[in-house]
Amino acid sequence: MALNLPPGGVSYRSRHMLAQSFSPKVIPMRLPSMRWLLVLALLVVGGMAAMAFRDHAARPVVTGPISAIVSFGDSLSDVGTYNPGASHPDPAARSATGQRFTTKPGEVWVEVVADALGLPVRPNQQVDFGPRGQGGRIVDLGGNGYAQGGAHIEADAETAPDGVPADGGLQGETAVSIKSQIDRYLAAHNGFDGTELVLVQGGGNDFLDAFQALGETEPEPASDADDRMEALVRAKAAAMVAQLKRLAAAGAKRIVYVNLPDLGMLPFIRNTELEDLATDVSEGYNELVAAGLARTGVQVFDLASLIDDAVDDPAAVGLTVTDKPACTSYDTSQGEVDALLCTPATLVEPDADQHYLFADSMHPTTAGHRLWGEKVAAFIHDRFGAVVKPVRVARNTTAR
Fold this sequence. Notes:
Layout: H1 16-21, H2 35-58, E1 68-72, E2 82-83, H3 109-117, E3 125-128, E4 137-140, H4 170-174, H5 178-189, E5 196-201, H6 204-216, H7 222-249, E6 254-258, H8 275-292, E7 299-301, H9 303-312, E8 321-325, E9 330-331, E10 336-337, H10 352-355, E11 356-358, H11 366-384
Parallel strand pairs: 1-5, 2-3, 5-6, 6-7, 8-11
Antiparallel strand pairs: 3-4, 9-10
């Protein structure tokens, strides 16, 4: 069933202006080089990070049955929080359940892992889009899928007093940070008993916002921009490490943290002046987080390398296109293609979801998520001895 935009469109953090600010032909400002960060990460903490990765690869830390999957993160891990078709004027176009930021039918990587382990995962909340009193609402579902599209590491979006803004722009206004997602879980469960598998991913929105701010501000000396970006990367890395340590302190013993993919490889950043900066920020952030997690028992899955390998050799992982979106589901209110609205009817070709890497400018397709999820499932088997089943080809997940 095609998803059409409700009145007012789907409002969430647009990347359209960012893409325009850093077009291949126009240089709006002198960008910080960020080479300092890569050198710093390699020289100061690179050894510690390498030791951490080797330590993770060498030993399964915990064995035994896994009782449940709990996930925290942003749109890359969101298993169906947002329902843009809840209040569409055409009843036939309405949807009763939340959608995923990928091609449909299809699952995000968290669900692929859940399938492999034979465990359920449902959204913690459902946000029905629409004006207040006309379908717009937030429903608590009680699932362990806490990730929400638009989430930052620590900062929550501003909301109206009742949590539902009158303009219908629910996603960007109700995105709950990873910190608050963890707060919510701990308030409901009083911690972990050690048998849960905890999946964590995030940080991209924090940096994409910073890149957009660079394009909107007046030019400044490169050294000043370097200082600001260095402080931001250090702060965001420390924030992510702090949240992961909170999980361990609350009793979680099987924590898998998925590092940040190379933001320079995103279709709307690649081949622009922003590409090198985005790559350096991603690499520096990943090095700092890995160093901060040394000897914590948190297992780091290297998504950055997986995506880089897929871009370098798509055929090796069954893909053909890695630099263009598979979807044509254009959101006129945001001025960009939106994976949340993507359906089989809005693919660039009938099987694009099976051989394109990206659904839109930043979210993977069904094939991309399946590749990611299968690799994480194998990683979990290696680290925790969990029995995994072959992953099924994507199915319709709207009723999950």
